[in-house]
Amino acid sequence: MQERTTVIPSMRYHDADAAIQWLERALGFTQHAVYRHPDKGHVVHAELVHRRSRGGVGMVMLGSTHNESEMATHYRRPAEVGGVTSSAYLIVDDCDPVYAAAQSTSAEILMTLRTMDYGGKAFAVRDPEGHIWSVGEYDPFALLTA
What we know:
The structure is a single chain. The protein has a four-stranded mixed sheet with strand order 1-4-3-2, with helices on one face. Strands 5-8-7-6 form a four-stranded mixed sheet, covered by helices on one side. It has four helices and eight strands. It is an alpha/beta fold. The protein is globular and about 50 Å long. It has one domain (10-74, 83-145): 2,3-Dihydroxybiphenyl 1,2-Dioxygenase, domain 1 (Roll), CATH 3.10.180.10. Pfam families: Glyoxalase (PF00903). It comes from Terriglobus aquaticus.
């Protein structure tokens, strides 16, 4: 059985459809599931998957800020609080093409692509709604299996 992560980031977006499209174009996610409000049509819950060619799969869950779930009132977008209090780290096989894809979108580059002292290349971007995504080739899981 393939090991899976036990922590999945969950985020809220004002325009969840645009966020899904951006995450696909800029960072290489694919849609696993998208559930919409039956009457209003907005994204209530979505699951996006990221697969590495060298093995490994990650996921992010997201939804619209205006969904009516019990938990919705506890989430705030970065713009509402003046920044972020957490971010996501995405492990990729090769940062170069992901960096190029992120640059071709509306992403704000916070840290340009560089080689890190601890191994591999990395960069950081802010998505169109203010969430910060660190992207890197460093894989801390490799240390668990060594």
